[in-house]
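Deliverable D4.2, example record:
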Amino acid sequence: MIRKTLIPAALIGLSLAACTQQVKAPFDPGVCFAVERPEGQDVVFNVVARDQTQIEMCAARLEEMRVRFQRMGSTRREVTGAYQGQFVFIDGRGVSFSRTLDGARFFALARTGDGRLAVPGAIERDVTDLGVVVEEAAPPAPPPFPAD
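Output generated by the structure prediction step:
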């Protein structure tokens, strides 16, 4: 009898302990945060910008911060941020979003050839047999309407 009650109670206790350790992103409307994860300390949220209307705008502010730090000599290539309950990750590939700090990420913005950020698929490219990337030509203009 004791065994039947101890095992479920232990499992519930372990699952609650796992839930309480997970870091949650702040839900402040329109506020973009930079997330710092110091070794052995709690996660710190620093305000980067206010009145941001979309998560993509927050990603742009975080990218701007990353570039400014690099111009000052920083070697850091990755930045983590938070916006209205979601985490924003910026790295060499582009921008990803996630609801958790260590969970699966949704890839949202890709880097172009010159390092800018764009929606994936916005830049169409074609790879030749030799492995050379060639920008796809614009579609031909429609024929003119016949004169009446």
